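Re: your question about Alpha-galactosidase

S., sorry for the slow reply, the queue was backed up all week. Below is exactly what I fed in.
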Amino acid sequence: AVLALDNGLARTPPMGWLHWERFLCGTDCAADPRRCVSEQLFVEMADRMAADGWRDAGYEFICIDDCWMAPTRDKQGRLQADPKRFPSGIRKLADYVHSKGLKLGIYSDVGKKTCAGFPGSYNHYDLDAQTFASWGVDLLKFDGCNSDSLELLAEGYRRMSLALNRTGRSIVYSCEWPFYLRPVQQPNYTEIKQYCNHWRNFYDVYDSWSSIRSILDWTALHQDTIVKIAGPGGWNDPDMALVIGNFGLSWDQSVTQMAMWAIMAAPLFMSNDLRHISPQAKCLLQNKEVIAINQDPLGKQGYQIVKDKNFQLWERPLSDRAYAVAVLNHQEIGGPQNFTFSLTFLGNGLACNPACSIRQVLPASRDWGVYSWISSLSVEVNPTGTVLLKV
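Result:
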């Protein structure tokens, strides 16, 4: 068994809300007070998360991404929040978030500067970890921009992990380590899992189908190296941001993102505006059956088992000898198509032996009944859509 980061955290993939993607690096609060990265934004999202069922559905972290900082450290060399946008400071914000039964995440960078040019944690790992702990932070997303070398990058990720553990506070550690290594060398996932709770492998998610599709394609292409390392304590992060409820995805594509992030055992961090979200998007994001698949305690990541013309068949082993199965239609033209496959394909032939019950979870939940091991299943799937089943 692989040693996970020994902080006892992230036994299942973390869930929450993140400002990056939807709110980017909005720092002009005078021009756009409702959409800038500010204390007000996080207070309002925390209110919505507590009041609108998000927290009760499992979304517990509310995460600040890049652009929260003042342009310089304080006189003691500590990071500080932008005083105009965060007038009460991060400690007060953390207290407020905790009062709502939620946890606060924050962002820093392994290099000298963050990706947006704010002060990074290079040479300040212990100080920054202590600062975050003293503020009551519960998660750190640690980016990888502006590091001078791959050696310094790796050393920085290791050092921040140890520094967080030394604070004595439980802080989930979200890394971008393999993403920054990959262009040059194959990441050592065994090592990364010893230091991180989840780790980013691929580009930022965008509010577009081409972005979702490229993440799925990349994951399938590299599944032989990444699937086996995922499990309780450490997870592959296909970029956690769920962009459901924004502008770029159709309904079927939103279903695909939700279904496939559950199959991939991905951290589920929404990046949307919870103050203005459609009932349909809310219903999908709070779907208890999909969340239960994502959070399954066995902690095995799913993988692609069949690729056939426009269709992909994925499975994920679940506890109690169940499987989650996703049928994804890649075609972007025409109408719904049927995909037929033998149940003997699933679970190396064991998922349905001698018989199994099948339930459709998405796009809508309904029972399909009991099937024998040698049956074939025919599934109708909309273009760019996914049908998610539990077997």
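The longest strand covers residues 355-362. The first helix runs from residue 39 to 51.

Happy to talk it through on Thursday.
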